[in-house]
Amino acid sequence: MSADVKELVRKLYEDFWTAGDDSLADAIIATTFVDHHVPPDYPPGPEGLRQWAANTRGGFPDFKINLLRIVAEGDWVACHIEFGGTHTGEFNGIPPTGNRAGAQAISMFRVEGGQLIESWEFADVPAFLEPLGVVLGPVPD
Q1: Three-state secondary structure call for residue 26
Q2: pTM above 0.85, yes or no
Q3: Residue 90: which of 61, 59, 53 has the closest Cα?
Q4: Residues 28-82: tens digit of each pLDDT
Q5: What's the distance, CA 45 to chain centroid?
Q6: CA-CA distances (angstroms) from residue 131 to 15, 63, 82, 101?
Q7: Torsion from C-alpha of 53, 129, 6, 19, nearest 10 degrees
Q8: Given Cys at both, which of 46, 50, 83, 125 links 65, Cβ 3.0 to 4.6 Å?
């Protein structure tokens, strides 16, 4: 089973995100899929993933994800990724800077019935946003 669940995540990062095969979302993402790291206004399932990807690719047309490490146990998959691209379009209200932005993240996925059903991602968001001129500070009390 470990090889099968790892393959789902490989397809997500390499085929969907990096190669841009949006049609793949229907095959690997459950209709109830919840991605806990994207804003809550995105719908669940494949459509939410496609919308998030369109937003990201709109700001970073050359956006890529490199899968550095992957570990699976049962219906859980953990991976270490590196992601980024060149900021040539608007991204979440940030006008294009022409700068290259990138960072690393740790992602966790839960698999059920041969599809990804839930994910969490802990990314170095400050490192990614800094080249765009966005500096995150402490949250006020």
Answers
A1: helix
A2: yes
A3: 59
A4: 999 999 999 888 899 999 999 999 999 999 999 999 999 999 999 999 999 999 9
A5: 14
A6: 26, 15, 16, 6
A7: 40
A8: 83
pLDDT (0 to 100) of residue 138: 80
Two tokens, residue 23: 């049609």
Interatomic CA distance for residues 93 and 64, integer angstroms: 21
Strand partners, 77: 72, 109
Domains, the chain: 2-89+97-132 (3.10.450.50)
The vertex-11 CA angle with 85 and 14, nearest 5°, equals 25
Residue with tokens 């698999």: 111
Q: What angle do CA 67, 137, 36 make, to 5 degrees?
A: 40
What count of Cα atoms within 13 Å lies in the side-chain half-sphere of residue 94? 22
